[in-house]
Amino acid sequence: METAVTLWQCYPINKRMNTKEYNTCVDLYTNSVYRFILKSLRNEADAEDIVQNTFEILWRNVEKVEFGKAKAFLFSVAHKNMIDFIRKHQRISHTETMPDTAAISFAKPTSELTDLLEHSLAKLPEVQRSVLLLRDYEGYSYDEIAQITELTEAQVKVYIYRARQKMQQYLTSLENVLH
Amino acid sequence: MNINRHNYEEYLIDYLEGNLNAETLAALQVFFKENPDVEAEVNLLAQDMPVLMPDTAVVYARKESLKKPETGGKTVFWSLNYPRFYTLSLAAALLLFSFGWFVMKYTLNQQPIRPNAQAPAVIANKTQTTNTAIPENPITTMPQQTETPPQTQPTAHAGVAQTSAPQTPRKSKTKTASQTSHTYYPTVAAAAPANLPTPATTPAQVLPSAQNPPAHSPKLPAPQTLASLTAQQLPLTNYVTVATPQYLPYPTHPEPNRQTPLQNKLVREVGRRLLAQNKQAKSTTKNGDESANVVAKLADALLPEAIAAANPKLANPDITLSVTVNSGTHQFIRDFLNK
Question: Is this model's pTM higher than 0.95 or not?
Fold first, then answer.
């Protein structure tokens, strides 16, 4: 399918993304978005669908998004899609009651500590997991996380504190069981 | 800063990461002393706080399918952009039409047509031979310049003025009634000096300009002012009643203050020459031709409408002077009359 550069794109719109920059975004942020969604949903097919939908939305808004803000736009759209997906399919109960450990077996064998962290992460509520992933995986500031997740900065800090606290409690309980 | 059990959690992450300022840190430490269970909980988390590390092994396998082909910026007008092309074409056509309409309208406004030709060109005077208050003075009226050299009708009294007519540098064309169109339309109802001699009816005679004074100074009486005029001193027909500005009830021109018609220039030229003649009359002695004095008397004969209304005997409605002027010209005439 031939893509026509429309006449509007001849106008000097400031910092408008073009096709090349969009493809650069695909190269740079696809894995990050996919990892973020996969760690939350723990299902490859669903995560891929959400990633594909997220980049399609970016392509439809390619003339409205600055290249420097494309990453935040992608994570924001992906987070919203994930929330909609979770609420639609009610996968929160499934993942909490029966973690699909087979779904993440695609990766190469990881260490024991990493597996424990993955399990502890799966125990977290949806919003706490999202903000913690954005903080630890992507290194976003609390203000940026608040913008992506549409929360307040104080809420983000509280959720991250509670998430770390719960993960520590989970890991501590596992250690007690193992020992 | 008030830190209590309802809001302390939002400060703990910054406390664990060492990002609290001194004031908040002090307040949090006070809170810890008051709540040792919270302090123990935070200290426990601080000993081994779990931090996730990104799993770089997780990759999106179908990344290439998300990319879009780069066509190199080819602009397609016809094949894929029908709506935009036609929209732009319509916008361009409207823009050109608007510009053309504006130009045409502006051009037409330069030559407005006045349906009611009430404004005479310069002076519509009516001779009156009954009163001869200034019988010895000839009159020189507005220069009626056209494309051809001005017509001169030599008279015995205005010979000097005729000689200077072709040398008059100012160009002031007599406008026809159809060329005078103003919304601002002060009417000068004149009780013109009926005592002026016959040459007053020859508008082709030209005032002697200030640069070209007459060869010999005319006999000029002391110029009269309005303050000195009384009904007993001067005949009634020597006054010209100047009406106050009036706006016509119908619009005659969309932009009344914009144009500067030649008629306004003409009236201003008359005013300037009247002033110059008046000053000259003051400085000259009473000898020679007194033709220029007529102008001075004509200037003195102008009577504002307010004074005419207060003294109805001063005005003679038989002779009217109706000139179409704009606001600036009217201001000039009013100032001139006040002098």
Answer: no
